[in-house]
Amino acid sequence: MPRKPRPVKHIVAFKVEPELAALLDAMPNKSEFIRAAVQSRLATACPLCRGSGIAPFGGVGDELAKLVSQHPLCVCAGCGVKEPRPCHTPGHCGDDSRVEVFERWGIFYCEACAILMSFCVECIKPLGRTGKVKKGARCNECAEKQAAV
Fold first, then answer.
1. How many angstroms separate the CA atoms of 83 and 99, rounded?
2. Structural domain boundaries of the chain?
3. Which pLDDT score is estimated for 18?
4. DSSP 123
5. Are 63 and 48 within 8 A, CB to CB?
6. DSSP-assigned states of every residue in 67-90
7. 93-101, long-range: CB within 8 Å, 24+ apart, which pairs?
8. d(CA 32, CA 37)
9. 121 near 134, Cβ under 8 Å?
10. In this predicted structure, what is the pLDDT of residue 14?
């Protein structure tokens, strides 16, 4: 049975620093590693440029951090669902207690879980599910302050 012809391969050379050359020389198959790294890099469409280019090697971390800070997802502490971070624009959504809990304590609850939770009447610290803690309760810190007065 005749063998399938192998695709023609070309040799590509590039310069590297001595440290990188030493690391590559220590690999059992540096050619395969370099091929896989280049193919992976070229196949990665940049989510920051919406697919119009290839992800740059540097600077993605800064741009991605900026994007995440503008539109992060929060994980609900009650059920684990991921939702966009609550609105924190001054004068908007001010009556939503979830915003204050998130901004003050860094704990996010979706709407469904927030109605099942009880919060300290003074500092709005989450106290637990309504079935376990009475509404209008205080956290330990606020209760101690109240008792001291």
1. 13
2. 13-45, 70-141
3. 92
4. T
5. yes
6. HHHHS-EEE-TTT--EEEPPP--T
7. 97/124, 100/124, 101/126
8. 9
9. no
10. 87
3-state secondary structure of 106: coil
Q: Which of 84, 137, 5, 138 is nearest to 93 (CA)?
A: 84
CA dihedral 137, 139, 142, 148 (to 10 degrees): 90
- How many residues would you count in the chain? 149
What pLDDT, on a 0 to 100 scale, did the predictor assign at position 61?
A: 64
Residue 93: CB atoms within 10 Å: 13
Residue pair 114/100 in contact by the 8 Å Cβ criterion: no
Determine the pLDDT at residue 56.
Answer: 56
Task: Give every residue of the chain whose pLDDT is below 50, as ranges.
Answer: 133
What are the structure tokens assigned to 25, written together?
Answer: 């020389």
Is residue 109 within 8 Å of residue 126, measured between CB atoms?
yes
